[in-house]
């Protein structure tokens, strides 16, 4: 009853050639460095590198980039504004601190966006279970559950309309709106749990609970490219920190 | 798509294990034995299944039928070894190939009703491979088996096709391939076509026929829609509501559907009309409903039919005042809008309480519409919402309880009712506010014959000189039974 939404296979982009666990490792390295650094140079250098990777993740048109990143940009601006408006610093220092924070937020979140844009959900589950020994029950269970999320959106709309047909809607009363929202959410939750348990039964009927060690039809291979990718990320972080220290801007958070 | 299936009654010799392409582990179709079998769900006093004696030989195809609530699905779950011992008490004996079914799980493939609650992966091939991965099949053996299974069900869209982009029938076909891939000796189907339109259902039955043509697996189908499966099965076994079974002889046909008694009324004034009303989802290029002219007249019943994807349900939502048309408009007659504060507004902008007293809607899934914990309250709610006093609302509820045969259930929770009872209650809730127009979306979807007849009789009673009914349906029998006029939506859509 509502527009089609779906969790589909991701379109392959150049960055998809890098194994998801290699991408995740690189994200972890970058995240650690950014969490420690408190200056403007380190996130600046890392952000430049991340931006350079956007085309490889299939995000070369500004429209595509904006569609994926607008919530992030908005929150970065929010963080910057809070720092400028309510921080203990004044004048140029306040602006510098605001910019540093905004840059850190963007530099921290952008790798995640790159990962999502370039990674097929099934390949991610494969890589996590094969290389990092993540429980298959968790990985493929989550994957199956994720498939149900778009169905929830359609269900939400149906429940809302069905209630209007019964003569029930919030009207102008905000309290009634909140109560209606809560009861709709509850109905949705009940439906989701029922469907989820049916899904679990169907998966177990296909031997998901057999206790046999699961094989993987697609496999997940680590190649030299993956090693280079992680090495590159480490080298980049080292370069960013070096540049920061040499320019005298380095000011780690814990000092 | 019709595959050569031997007619009922003639029996091909089951394949010798090891000779067929489907028996790589040297085990053929399974034998099933039930002796005095029963099962009672924990927390229930009545037995869901009782006194079932049944022998199913390897390679046989059996249809298990019976009214709603006769325990068909419970029995199927028991055969699949899917009933946890702690979920209830079992009685008698049940074996698959001489052992308890939970020890034969690897020999059994199951297909349930809801395709969306069975698909796991995002790509067709990966989904079929899922079961093989679970049983530890070496990767190099998986893909040939996947291709064999896809071929066995006639799925030809390719391994990489996105599962989310499939129609219901194709999804269910894929689920069947997934169940067949590990080469089960026993294939169990639990109302596999109950949530599909007639085309999708035919597609799935053709796939089943194709897959079991070589008798490489014993087949047990649970369904109340007997007619459709008859050409495909050797035996029909009916579960009786209070225990025990009856086996119908070869050549048996179910009794014809009971048609309601009804009066045909003179067409009255147009109460509600769609004038070139169409709908396109935001961000979608293709309209969900092409501009449509439709008129609902007092005293008449209009059936809206047509293949999937032509926007039948969307048209119902527009007429019901639940969605705004993106093109054209929906207009209500002055006799319907009388009493509205702003009678010039279209139905989708009427306040909900005003809408409910003018246009009633019954949704496909009744539980979406239930809002209270008691049948009695559920029936009083609409009247209360639209400004009737508590005493009057209670009186309306009591009258409807009597009229619709729900009096015995007055204090039950609507969510605990059976499918047929829920359906009747959802029609009753729409009637409680006495609307002039009643819109029903697939009112008989997934109902057994008994409930079907009850529901159609109930709807026939609602046809009077003053009221207009609109039925959106795939069910040709409902159209025959109730419709005065038929509107067929027919924009062919690529699947």
Q: Determine the strand fraction of chain A and express it as a percent band.
A: under 5%
Computed structural class of chain B: alpha/beta
- Domain count of chain B: the total is 2
Characterize the overall form of chain B: globular
Mean pLDDT of chain A: 89
CATH topology heading of the largest domain in chain B: Rossmann fold
How many helices of chain B in DSSP terms? 14
Q: How many strands, what sense, and barrel or not for the largest sheet of chain B?
A: 6 strands, mixed
Q: Label the structural class of chain A.
A: mainly alpha
Multimer state: heterodimer
**What is the strand content of chain B?**
15-25%
Would you list the SSEs of chain A in sequence order as H and E?
A: HHHHHHHH
Name the biggest interface.
Answer: A-B, 54 and 71 residues
Count of discrete alpha- or pi-helical segments spanning 4 or more residues of chain A: 8
Question: Can you tell me the overall shape of chain A?
Answer: flat
N-end to C-end Cα span of chain A: 57 Å
CATH architecture level-2 label of the largest domain in chain B: 3-Layer(aba) Sandwich
Helix and strand arrangement:
The complex is a heterodimer of chains A (255) and B (495).
Chain A: H1 20-36, H2 41-53, H3 62-86, H4 91-118, H5 121-131, H6 136-165, H7 174-205, H8 224-246
Helix pairs in contact in A: 1-4, 1-8, 2-4, 2-8, 3-4, 5-6, 6-7
Chain B: E1 32-41, E2 49-56, E3 61-65, H1 72-79, E4 88-96, E5 108-111, H2 124-134, H3 139-152, H4 168-180, E6 186-190, H5 198-212, E7 218-222, H6 226-229, E8 235-239, E9 245-248, E10 270-279, E11 289-297, E12 301-305, H7 312-319, E13 327-332, H8 334-337, H9 352-356, E14 359-362, H10 375-385, H11 390-403, H12 419-431, E15 437-441, H13 449-462, E16 468-472, H14 476-482, E17 485-488
Parallel strand pairs in B: 3-7, 3-8, 5-6, 6-7, 12-16, 12-17, 14-15, 15-16
Antiparallel strand pairs in B: 1-2, 1-4, 8-9, 10-11, 10-13
Helix pairs in contact in B: 2-3, 2-4, 3-4, 4-5, 10-11, 10-12, 12-13
């Amino acid at each position: 009853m509502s527009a089609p939404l779906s969790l589909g296979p991701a379109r392959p982009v150049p960055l998809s050639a890098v194994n998801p666990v290699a991408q995740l490792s690189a994200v972890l390295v970058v995240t650690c460095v950014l969490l420690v650094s408190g200056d403007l140079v380190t996130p600046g250098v890392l952000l430049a590198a991340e931006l350079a990777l956007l085309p490889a993740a299939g995000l070369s048109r500004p429209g595509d980039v904006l569609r994926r990143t607008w919530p992030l940009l908005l929150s970065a601006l929010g963080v910057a504004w809070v720092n400028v408006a309510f921080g203990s610093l004044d004048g140029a220092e306040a602006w510098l601190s605001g910019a540093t924070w905004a840059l850190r937020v963007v530099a921290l979140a952008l790798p995640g966006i790159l990962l999502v844009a370039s990674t097929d959900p099934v390949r991610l589950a494969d890589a996590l279970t094969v290389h990092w020994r993540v429980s298959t029950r968790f990985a493929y269970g989550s994957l199956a559950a994720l498939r149900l999320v778009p169905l929830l959106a359609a269900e939400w709309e149906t429940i809302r309309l069905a209630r209007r047909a019964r003569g029930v809607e919030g009207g102008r009363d905000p309290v009634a709106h909140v109560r209606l929202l809560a009861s709709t959410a509850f109905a949705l939750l009940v439906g989701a749990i029922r469907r989820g348990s049916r899904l679990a039964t169907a998966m177990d009927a296909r031997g998901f609970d057999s206790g046999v060690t699961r094989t993987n039809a697609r496999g997940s291979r680590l190649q030299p490219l993956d090693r280079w990718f992680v090495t590159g990320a480490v080298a980049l972080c080292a370069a960013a920190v070096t540049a920061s220290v040499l320019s005298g801007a380095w000011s780690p958070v814990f000092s | 798509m019709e595959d050569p299936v031997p007619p009922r009654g003639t029996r091909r010799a089951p394949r010798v294990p090891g000779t067929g392409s489907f028996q790589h582990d040297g085990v053929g179709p399974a034998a099933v034995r039930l002796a005095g079998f029963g099962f009672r769900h924990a927390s229930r006093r009545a037995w869901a299944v009782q006194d079932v004696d049944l022998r199913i030989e390897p390679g046989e195809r059996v249809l298990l039928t019976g009214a709603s609530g006769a325990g068909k699905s419970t029995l199927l779950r028991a055969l699949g070894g899917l009933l946890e011992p702690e979920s209830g008490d079992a009685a008698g004996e049940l074996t698959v190939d001489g052992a308890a079914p939970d020890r034969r799980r690897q020999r059994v493939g199951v297909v349930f009703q809801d395709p969306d609650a069975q698909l796991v992966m995002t790509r067709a091939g990966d989904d079929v491979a899922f079961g093989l991965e679970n049983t530890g099949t070496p990767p190099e053996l998986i893909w040939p088996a996947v291709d064999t299974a896809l071929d066995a069900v006639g799925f030809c869209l390719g391994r990489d096709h996105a599962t989310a982009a499939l129609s219901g029938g194709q999804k269910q076909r894929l689920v069947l391939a997934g169940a067949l891939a590990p080469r089960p000796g026993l294939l169990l189907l639990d109302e596999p076509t109950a949530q599909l339109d007639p085309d999708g259902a035919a597609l799935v039955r053709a796939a089943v026929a194709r897959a079991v043509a070589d008798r490489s697996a014993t087949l047990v189908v649970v369904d109340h829609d007997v007619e459709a499966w008859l050409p495909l099965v050797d035996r029909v076994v009916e579960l009786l509501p209070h225990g025990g079974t009856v086996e119908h002889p070869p050549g048996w046909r179910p009794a014809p559907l009971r048609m309601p008694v009804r009066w045909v009324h003179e067409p009255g004034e147009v109460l509600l009309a769609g004038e070139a009303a169409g709908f396109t989802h935001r961000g979608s290029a293709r309209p969900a409903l092409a501009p449509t002219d439709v008129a609902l007249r007092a005293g008449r019943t209009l059936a809206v039919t047509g293949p999937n994807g032509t926007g039948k349900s969307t048209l119902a939502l527009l007429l019901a005042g639940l969605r705004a048309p993106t093109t054209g408009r929906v207009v209500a007659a002055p006799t319907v809008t009388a009493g509205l504060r702003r009678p010039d507004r279209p139905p989708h902008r009427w306040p909900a309480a005003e809408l409910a007293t003018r246009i009633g809607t019954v949704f496909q899934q009744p539980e979406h519409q239930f809002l209270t914990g008691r049948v009695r309250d559920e029936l009083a709610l609409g009247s209360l919402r639209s400004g009737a006093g508590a005493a009057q609302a209670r009186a309306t509820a009591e009258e409807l309880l009597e009229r619709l045969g729900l009096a015995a259930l007055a204090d039950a929770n609507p969510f605990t009712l059976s499918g047929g009872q829920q359906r009747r209650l959802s029609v009753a809730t729409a009637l409680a506010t006495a609307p002039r127009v009643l819109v029903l979306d697939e009112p008989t979807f997934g109902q057994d014959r008994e409930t079907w007849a009850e529901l159609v009789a109930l709807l026939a009673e609602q046809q009077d000189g003053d009221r207009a009914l609109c039925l959106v349906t795939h069910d040709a029998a409902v159209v025959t039974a109730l419709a005065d006029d038929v509107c067929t939506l027919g924009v062919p859509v690529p699947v």
